[in-house]
Amino acid sequence: MIATIDVADIGALSTLKAFRRRPTPNDVPGLRWLDVAAAVPLASKRPPSMRRAVLFAMWSDESAAAAFADSHPLAERFAHDCFHAVLRPLRAFGAWPGLPDAVPRTRTTQHDGPVIVTTLGRLRMSQALRFLRASRPAERAAIAADGFVWGTAAARPPFVATVSVWSSDEAAAAYAYADAHAGHPQAIAQQRRKDFHHESAFVRYAVVSTSGALPGAPLLDPALRREPGE
Description:
Layout: E1 2-9, H1 12-20, E2 31-40, E3 52-59, H2 62-71, H3 73-77, E4 82-94, E5 115-123, H4 128-144, E6 148-156, E7 159-166, H5 169-177, H6 183-193, E8 197-211
Helix pairs in contact: 4-6
């Protein structure tokens, strides 16, 4: 299994159309799960602008993801001035459609290089206020953490998510677990007391390849980059 993430400024109208026309695994060969959400700056109190969107997907293999990117109308919306990443899961916590049980659940992994982390949730709307109060300190802590490269929240309620890019596996793990009193561990503790979500997952990925640039962020390791058509 591999995952892909696309981030692009596609415009508010295109974002709304993408919300309504999300394909399912029955529609696309090799697709395990897909969703689209509007990007929201980390720790922001403002509603999404809808201009920037994030496309999340999980695939049976890289060839299925490439076929979708080459031919599907939804992929076409993200084809211009887009950051695209192909990812291999290193570890996961929780359960999510399309996420195999075989992905390791251990906190520590052996990986040399940058990683991308996603948090995925299907929010209980009755817990929205608690969720926002817990997530904002965690997001502020991420922005200030050593090794943080770039990140965004994303929302199409009840689907909520974050994407964060880290310089190393060790940096991502330190943010998540090193200080029990920091924002992220505290958010986890609050979720365990009373779950914010109907279902949720935290997934850390190795970066297989990227194309394009993240908005306002430095380029990832050039060795990981793959230009279209290569």
